[in-house]
Design brief:
aminotransferase; alpha+beta; Aminotransferase-like; transaminase activity; Branched-chain amino acid aminotransferase; 317 residues; transferase; D-amino Acid Aminotransferase, Chain A, domain 2; D-amino Acid Aminotransferase, Chain A, domain 1; 14 strands
Amino acid sequence: MSGASADGRTGAVWPLAHHRGALVPKEAATLPMGSLALRYGISVFEGVRLYHQDAGGVVPWLLDPHLDRLRNSCRIMGLDESCCASVPAIIDELVAAQGIDADGYVRIAVSAANVGGIDEAAESALTVTVAPAGRKRWLAHGEGIRLAVSSWQRPSDAVFPSTAKNISAYAGPRLALAEARQAGFDSCVLRTAEGLISEAPTATVVLVEDGRVVTPRLDDHVLPGVTRSWVLATARALGHDAIEDAVTEDRLRAADEVVLCGTGLEFGPVRTVADRALPGWPVCPVTTELVDAYFDQARGRTAPTRLDWALIARGAR
């Protein structure tokens, strides 16, 4: 993918965290063993990419919609959303204190730090870290993902709200990913109880069918992804139809192109689905167009696509 050549890797280690109001070594950014975060998984988070700009310096990519989603997750999980307002200044502080001038990954967590039982009100603690992060091998080396369709399911919103980016929501997808890798696949997608395609463990699945961009509906227990919203909006700006729709396994296997996308992954073009080669691989013109636009925007060469959080979080509770 031509837009992804610069990987930003430096071999640097950035040792500081902003934890509970102070800069500390990362190893000191801890929570009590009996905290609600560790006992009951009450901790929400966002991952934000930090991109080096062609003109110099680094910028957190699409920070505002990430913070809007973080606030929404806090509200759902009973955490204090007011700390989110300080995050931009904290990122600037971590960048300046560590002399960061390369691509990185910012993790922003709001956790229930107090010790107590399951009915205890949460006392929120904010933790922000930055780690060096370049391209995954899918973009760095032009590899294609071998994708499984997992027997594991994404729970319905009656079980756990899909719109909350809470750490407990990743326990099931982690098992699905481990099972897929043991079977020789690189990643997997989970289904709904009705058998529809939902999402990958840490990414949105996107199909290209005759030039049209398609992604599963939020109603199919999909996290309202920031990159997902960017892809839909940018595909339309590039002249493609882009829709949310019910996606079956047969439809996934028959697509011209399939790509996984998300903040940490960026883009992972798919080579095979359940051991069936995709007809368009390795020529993926729409995916390549989106990747080029993404890095042009992330590097500051062109203006970023405007995102509407109300559309990203449609149906949030």
